[in-house]
Design a protein that fits this description.
Blueprint: H1 13-25, H2 30-38, H3 42-59, H4 63-87, H5 95-103, H6 106-122, H7 124-138, E1 145-150, H8 156-162, E2 167-174, H9 177-189, E3 196-200, E4 213-219, H10 228-237, E5 239-251, H11 265-274, E6 278-286, H12 292-297, E7 302-309
Parallel strand pairs: 1-2, 1-4, 2-3, 4-5
Antiparallel strand pairs: 5-7, 6-7
Helix pairs in contact: 1-3, 1-4, 3-6, 3-7, 4-6, 6-7
C-alpha cells in the first residue's frame, strides 16, 4: 500500500527517496510530510526534486545519520516553540548566548546542522522561499551578474547560482571559518567546478566592501543577529546601482539559535526599506501551508521572501 507521504510523489524519485530515508527513522512523521508535500504546486514539486537530488548527494552513505539528525532537530524545535508560546519571546537574546549554548558545542551543532539540511526540501515554508529564489530571482536573470551570498550553510543556493549561464563570479561570506570549510566541502561533493570565493566576514563590523555585486542573497541569517538593520545597511553598500537583494527571514520562528524576533512581515519590509532599498516582490509561506493571516495571528512560523533593489 502506498503511504500518504508517498502518494503524490510519483515522478519525483529523489524526493521519494529522501522522504523514505526520514520515515525509516521516524515513521510517526508521515502525516506531517504528507501535508507538506500535498500542498505544493507542480512548480514547487519540480524545485523540491532538484533540492532533494542535491541533498541526497550531500548525505550519500549517511542517510540514516542525517535522518536521525532531522528528528533530533525537530525535537529541539518543539521545545523552543513551547517556550515561545508560553513567554512570547525567543529563549536567547544575544549572539553570546547562542555561541555558548549552540555554536561552541560540536555535539549539538552536528545533528542540528544535519537536520536543517533536510528541512530545505521537506518543510513547505523552506521550500517555498527557495522556489522563489530559484524560479523568480536567480533563473530569470538574463544579463551577466556577480553573485554574493551571506551565510551559505550547506551551499545549496551557491550550487545553483554557480550553474547559471550568465554568472560572472560567485562569492560567499560567513562569520565562521568552520562553517565556510563545511560549505567548501559541500560544494566539492556537489561537483561545483566554477571558482567560488569563500571569505570570513562579519557583516556587522566589516569595512566598506572592495567589490559590489548584482545579486546578494541573505537567507535565514538576519534572525541570528542582534542588529539585523546594521547588516542590511551594510549589504546595501555592497550592491551595484540597480543591484538586487534577496532576503529570506522567518517570523515567529523559535529555534535554538534565533535571537532576533520578527513578528510580522511588515517588520521585515520596514527593515529593508530603512536601508534605502525598494522592495519589488514579496512572498509568504507558512508552516504546513497554513493560511497566512491565521498563521500570523496565532504566531506560527512564516517564511518571508522578498526582493529589493538599490537605486
Amino acid at each position: 500500500m502506498t503511504s500518504p507521504a508517498m502518494g503524490n510523489l510519483s515522478g519525483y524519485p529523489e524526493t521519494q527517496a529522501l522522504v523514505r530515508d526520514v520515515l525509516d527513522v521516524w515513521p510517526d512523521h508521515e502525516d506531517y510530510l504528507a501535508r507538506s508535500m500535498g500542498a505544493r504546486s507542480d512548480g514547487q514539486m519540480a524545485t523540491t526534486e532538484e533540492v532533494a537530488a542535491a541533498t541526497r548527494r550531500l548525505i550519500a552513505g549517511r542517510e540514516r545519520h542525517f535522518a536521525e539528525g532531522y528528528k533530533w532537530t525537530c525535537d529541539q524545535l518543539r521545545q523552543e516553540e513551547l517556550f515561545f508560546h508560553r513567554e512570547g519571546r525567543y529563549r536567547l537574546a544575544t549572539f553570546a548566548d547562542a555561541e555558548a549554548e549552540v555554536y561552541s558545542r560540536p555535539e549539538y551543532m552536528e545533528p542540528y546542522v544535519s537536520g536543517l539540511l533536510l528541512t530545505q526540501a521537506l518543510w513547505y515554508n523552506h521550500l517555498g522561499t527557495f522556489d522563489m529564489f530559484l524560479d523568480r530571482v536567480l533563473r530569470p536573470t538574463r544579463e551577466p551578474f556577480d553573485y554574493l551570498e551571506i551565510g551559505p550553510g550547506h551551499g545549496l543556493a551557491v550550487f545553483f547560482a554557480a550553474q547559471h549561464p550568465h554568472v560572472r563570479s560567485v562569492a560567499a561570506w560567513d562569520v565562521s571559518a568552520t562553517s565556510l570549510a563545511e560549505t567548501r566541502k559541500a560544494l566539492d561533493t556537489l561537483g561545483v567546478s566554477k571558482p567560488v570565493d569563500l571569505t570570513e566576514v562579519d557583516i556587522l563590523s566589516a569595512a566598506e566592501p572592495d567589490q559590489q555585486y548584482d545579486l546578494i542573497v541573505i537567507s535565514e541569517v538576519l534572525e541570528h543577529l542582534e542588529q539585523p538593520q546594521t547588516a542590511v545597511r551594510f549589504l546595501k553598500t555592497a550592491l551595484k546601482p540597480g543591484g538586487r537583494l534577496f532576503v529570506n527571514v522567518p517570523i515567529n520562528s523559535p529555534s535554538p539559535d534565533h535571537i532576533y524576533l520578527f513578528s510580522t512581515p511588515d517588520e521585515v519590509s520596514a527593515l529593508v526599506e530603512a536601508a534605502g532599498l525598494t522592495i519589488e516582490a514579496s512572498e509568504l509561506y507558512a508552516t504546513q501551508a497554513r493560511p497566512i493571516e491565521k498563521a500570523i495571528k496565532n504566531r506560527i512560523s512564516v517564511s518571508v521572501g522578498l526582493t529589493a533593489r538599490a537605486a
